[in-house]
Amino acid sequence: MSSRLVTRSRLLLWGGCLALALALPLVFKSGFLISLLCQMGIMVVFSLSYNMLLGQTGLLSFGHAVYYGLGAFATMHTLNAIGKDGGPLVVALLPAVGACAGLAGGVLLGYVTTRKAGTTFAMITLGIGELVAACSLMFPGVFGGEGGVSGNRVIGKESFLGFTWGPQVEMYGLIVLWAFVCTVAMFALTQTPLGRMANAVRDNPERAEFVGYDTERVRLLMVILSGMFAGAAGGLTALNYEIVTAETLNAHTSGVVLLMTFVGGIGFFYGPIIGAILITVMQIVIGGMTHAWLLYFGLFFLFMVLKAPGGIASLIAVQRNLWNAGLFGRMLPHYLAMALPVLILLAGLVGLVELTYALLAGEGVGAGDTATKVLGMQLKLGSPAPWVTALAVTGTGLILTRWIGNRAGAAWNAALATLHGDKA
Amino acid sequence: MSAPAIRIKGLKKNFGASEIIRGVDLDIHRGERHAIIGPNGAGKSTLFHLISARLPVSSGTIELKGENVVGLKPFEINRRGLSRSFQITNIFHNLSVFENLRCAVLWSLGYRYSFWQRLAGLADARQRAEAVMEDIGLGKRRDTPAGILSYAEQRALEIGITIASGADVILLDEPTAGMSNTETEEAVALIRRVTEGKTLVMVEHDMGVVFGLADRISVLVYGQVIATDAPAAIRCNAAVQEAYLGTSLNHD
Q1: Which of A39-43, A305-309, B147-151 has the lowest mean pLDDT?
Q2: Which of A69, B32, B120, B127 could disulfide-link to A248, CB 3.0 to 4.6 Å?
Q3: Residue of A nearest to B158 (CA)
Q4: How many angstroms separate the CA atoms of B96 and B147, rounded?
Q5: Domain range holding A270?
């Protein structure tokens, strides 16, 4: 264990991540991809802030979007208030306003929510989330009503070091810098007395009280700090989209950040980063391909909860342990063998879902014989051919997956047994 | 003369209609090792919960080093120098042995809720946690998550967390429960070592441990202390023998 703040390996890792993130637009040049990257960066900060509660303090919140939304609205109003008087430098610093708003929200609401942990906390956050969402519709002057509040992030005549934040790629650079600073700060927090005591309160609040810590205070401080980072993410989203609607602070947004964090893995600092990137891609890429994306999203979440409750980060951690124990080579052929059956199964399932969806969605215009385009293929929904094919593919995939999966599962269990046996 | 470590007067605790602690008066002297014994259901653990504020007091007073502590929260009592262990192991399961102990020393070293200092840079916290870790014989398990330690190791860690903050009044609730004979012997040696110069109050069922460790013994029966005395006198006390009818205090 190193006691130095900046070690060479840490510097390499963080510096490498920053350089990689900044270099991505060189490869992904299209406007669509850059927008995607922007959204990812914002969600990384948002979900990391959420995991300060869920993973680190053991607090399941259903209303984290409140802080995100408050940050977004505060930033947007500040942007509009500054108007022509400001310049690009001021705009670049605006997410700090969002952070302050999130922090203030955390102080105010955290005081109410953190009295209790567990289910009570979850229920109170749900209630407060609904309350704030309702308020957002009741005060259109502040929250802009249905249309939201919009603004223009390009203000002033001069540029700052050549940046005006007008082009999306410049906005991306700004997001990366903010995301980097926030991520480093959130990681640093896990290495402080408060960060560690948050873990202690998560594991055993009673014991934490009996070693001198006020668990309510620990929870409150974590909610405030996490609200601050969520607010910064909200500030970025305001600048990025130049519009903030009530959607930013409602239960749906709170749900999405929960999913991202959980799927990524709440037990690891980097878990939410993976989750944010993956879910954002799913949302935007799959969302652009099919109307049924929410269904896939739900199925994926269900699969993760049942099969990998530790999230993707925990799967990676197990692979790393296997690798270190020299067992990864034993599992690799099984992983490869699984790839094909799983792909077949997925193809079959997707076919069924898309056919069904097309049939149901097309009902109004006289379904049955309607020809429809599914994944670029022109299909006749009325004829049995596409249905039989999809069913056959699904069935084949299912049988193959089970057959090969059983052997892979046995090998997996054997490898894990060896791994844990070696440890003990 | 300074106030006793703990002075309990007229302490009562009822759960609904049933009175569990029915007027306890007890002085624990500074620096003594005091055992509380009694039949099952006598209220020994409840008494500990009242002293440590895990349960609210119904009536009566508890003074810790001369200061009334009734109504304070557990963490406030802990900060006044009273630390306790639990009958059912109460540790931070997902944290390593070292992290468990470091958490236990942070407050007493004044780090409070700091989020501007780095744990790794706090040499005093590390040294103190490491010293306790060696003391309780878990030096080799430093990075093992507490949740996967053996039972005896978890019990040792429980004691370690309890004494790590340097509290001078230590309450141990059945520290040897569920241990084998060898493990019990080790635990007794450990308790003797780490409570040197401190006030120790313990609830214990193992009479060997009680008579081996305690300077004084209090016998709690039906929520009342029927006798407080030196071990030899307790052994001969008629009321105590009656309460323990059918069992013998002399076998050990």
Answers
A1: A305-309
A2: A69
A3: A207
A4: 8
A5: 8-291
The contacts of residue B41 (CB under 8 Å, 6+ apart) are none
pLDDT of B210 strictly over 80:
yes
Q: CB contact, 8 Å: A115 with chain B?
A: no
Residue B85 has pLDDT above 80, yes or no: yes
Query: CB-side exposure of B43: number of CA atoms within 13 Å?
Result: 25
Instruction: Assess if residue A304 is contained within a domain.
Output: no
Q: What class is the B6-243 domain?
A: alpha beta
**Chain A residues within an 8 Å CB radius of B120:** 1-3, 191
Chain B residue with CA closest to A218: the answer is: B113
Judge whether A166 lies within some domain. yes
Per-residue pLDDT tens for A165-210?
Answer: 988 999 999 999 999 999 999 999 999 999 999 999 999 999 999 9
Count the domains in chain A. 2
The mean per-residue pLDDT over the stretch B5-23 comes to 94
Query: Residue B113 is nearest to which of A5, A200, A217, comparing CB atoms?
Result: A217
ipTM: 0.93
As a whole number, mean pLDDT of residues B172-189 equals: 91
pLDDT band at A87 (very low <50, low <70, confident <90, very high): confident
Verdict on whether the full-model pTM lies above 0.95: no
Assess whether A373 and A267 both reside in one domain. Answer: no
Convert the pLDDT of each residue in B124-149 to its tens digit: 999 999 999 999 999 999 999 999 99
Is the model more confident about A287 or about B107?
B107
- Examine residue A297 and state whether it is found in any structural domain, yes or no: no
Q: How many angstroms separate the Cα of B40 from the Cα of each of A338, B14, B217, B237?
A: 58, 17, 16, 19
| A1 inside domain | no
Residue A371 pLDDT greater than 60, yes or no: no
CATH of the domain at A26: 1.10.3470
Cα A231 versus chain centre, distance: 15
Tell if the CB–CB gap between B84 and A210 is shorter than 8 Å: yes
A180 with A74, same domain: the answer is: yes
The answer, for A217 touching chain B at a CB cutoff of 8 Å, is: yes
Q: Span A7-31, mean pLDDT?
A: 90
Q: Cα separations (Å) of B66 from A347, B2, B110?
A: 75, 8, 24
In A, which residues are within 8 Å of B52 by CB distance?
210
* A205 and A341, same domain (yes or no): no
- Estimate to the nearest angstrom the gap between the alpha carbon of A77 and the chain centroid: 26
Nearest by CB to residue B120, choosing from A189, A191, A207, is: A191
Within 8 A of A203 by CB-CB distance, chain B residues are 92-95
Q: Mind spelling out the 3-state secondary structure of chain B? A: CCCCCEEEEEEEEEECCEEEEEEEEEEECCCCEEEEECCCCCCHHHHHHHHCCCCCCCEEEEEECCEECCCCCHHHHHHCCEEECCCCCCCCCCCEHHHHHHHHHHCCCCCCCCCCCCHHHCHHHHHHHHHHHHHCCCHHHCCCEHHHCCHHHHHHHHHHHHHHCCCCEEEEECCCCCCCHHHHHHHHHHHHHHCCCCEEEEECCCHHHHHHHCCEEEEEECCEEEEEECHHHHHHCHHHHHHCCCCCCCCC
Would you say residue A385 has pLDDT above 90? no
A122 touching B (Cβ < 8 Å):
no
The reply to whether B93 touches chain A by the CB within 8 Å rule is yes
Q: What is the pLDDT of residues A332-348, one digit of tens each?
A: 888 898 888 899 999 89
Q: Which sequence spans correspond to the domains of chain B? A: 6-243
